[in-house]
Amino acid sequence: MYSYDNAAYRYHERPSEYSPTMDDFKEWLEELPENIRKDMSEKGFAYCKTAFPFTRYVNERTTWIWMNL
Q1: Are 37 and 29 in contact (CB under 8 A)?
Q2: What is the pLDDT, as a whole number, of residue 24?
Q3: Which of 17, 27, 33, 69 gives the lowest tally of CB atoms within 10 Å of its CB?
Q4: Is residue 12 packed enough to be buried (19+ CB in 10 Å), middle (13-18) or exposed (0-12)?
Q5: CB 4: neighbour CB atoms within 10 A?
Q6: What pLDDT digit, counting tens, does each position of 6-51 carry?
Q7: Residue (of 5, 18, 3, 6) closest to 54 by Cα position
């Protein structure tokens, strides 16, 4: 039986089905508050590809696109 933690982990692992692009990263940064945008921008794309806030953005964006095709 899966717990909430297992489900959350599996959800955030899904971006491997879709490789986030630099365009995804730039769009995500634009939506962030200034202080967080600066921090995530400094950490860079490679780091953020495994950060939960970015993987959530990618999952929601790609799910929405597939549902609306």
Answers
A1: yes
A2: 94
A3: 69
A4: middle
A5: 7
A6: 666 666 565 556 788 999 999 999 999 999 999 999 999 999 998 9
A7: 18
Inter-axis angle of helices 22-31 and 34-43, nearest 10: 150
The identity of residue 21, as a single letter, is: T
What are the residue ranges spanned by the domains of the chain?
4-67
Q: Where are the alpha helices (DSSP H) in the chain?
A: 4-13, 22-31, 34-43, 45-48, 52-67
- Residue 61: what are its φ and ψ, rounded to 5°? -65, -45
Token output for 15: 């971006």
Cβ proximity of 56 and 12 under 8 Å: yes
